[in-house]
Amino acid sequence: MLNRILEFSLANRFLIIIIALVIAGFGIRSILTLPIDAVPDVTPNQVQILTNSPGLGPVEVERFITFPVETAMSGLPGIEGIRSVSRFGLSAVTVTFEEDVDIYFARRLVMERLPQAREMIPEGFGTPEMGPISTGLGEIYQFEVKGEGYSLMELRSILEWDIAFKLKSVPGIVEVNTYGGELKTYEVQLIADKLVSYDLSIDQVFQALGSNNSNSGGAYIERNQEQYLIRGEGLVRGLEDIGNIVVATRNEGTPIFIRDVAEVAFAPMVRQGAVTRDGEGEAVTGVVMMLIGENSRTV
């Protein structure tokens, strides 16, 4: 048998060369398109449900958020298990499905149960949302944002509102997570003595802030064959706008503003940790998450 193969090859050298070149071409093409990762992705078929609730301790997060979410997700078809982690201000529930269940179908099943979970969570305790369509090995790129003359708050704002926005437009990127820095917030620092002197409660301040930050429409009017749209603009654009919000009135209409009972300033949100680099101080970093099933080499 081997002799016949050798005789055929010697008698048809040109054909054998063509076949060898075709096989080599397919091999080169396979090498160029072969997905390459550092380690194989062994993450199970799962959907994460995350709920942020700043200010709640682990016990309250477990009782008021995690347990209702787990109850709502139980009984889904194709489910293998439910596990959860309750931390300070964060609830993470992981629903694991069988391997033959399509991930997008699994997310649809979870999405249909989310309204039921939201109804069982007390108002103001957080809204459960599904995590990104990624895996435990989806972190394909890490980077640091730095620049002279910029504070940690400014660097984080640049990362979240500029860099991350552009990276998410890259095919195969599902999310960009931010670590470190200071999350910019508008903080109203109440002065207790002034609240007492004006006979105001904290609830009145909350109501004033909540009801004075929106735009509204009022149809239109016609004048000289032209149409004028009626709009009420009340969105807060800066610290001064917050300070000019009226909390209450006294002495026949004299307004009491937020600036009269509080100090308004930019302040970082309460955080649980920090990012450092080479022991030289804090840093602002980003982690790019790859869409499940994508090729990290090409992304």
Layout: helices, strands, pairs:
Elements: H1 2-11, H2 13-33, E1 46-52, H3 58-73, E2 79-87, E3 90-97, H4 103-120, E4 129-130, E5 139-145, H5 152-167, E6 173-180, E7 184-190, H6 192-197, H7 202-211, E8 216-223, E9 226-232, H8 239-243, E10 246-250, E11 254-257, H9 258-261, E12 262-268, E13 284-290
Antiparallel strand pairs: 1-3, 1-4, 2-3, 5-13, 6-13, 7-12, 8-9, 10-11
Helix pairs in contact: 3-4
Please give a structural write-up:
Helix content is 35%, strand content 29%. The protein is an alpha+beta fold. Among the domains are: 38-131, Alpha-Beta Plaits (2-Layer Sandwich), CATH 3.30.70.1430; 186-268, Multidrug efflux transporter AcrB TolC docking domain, DN and DC subdomains (2-Layer Sandwich). The strands form 5 sheets. It has a 4-stranded antiparallel beta sheet. Helix 3 packs across helix 4 (103-120). The longest helix has 21 residues, at 13-33. It is elongated, with a radius of gyration of 29 Å. The mean pLDDT is 88.
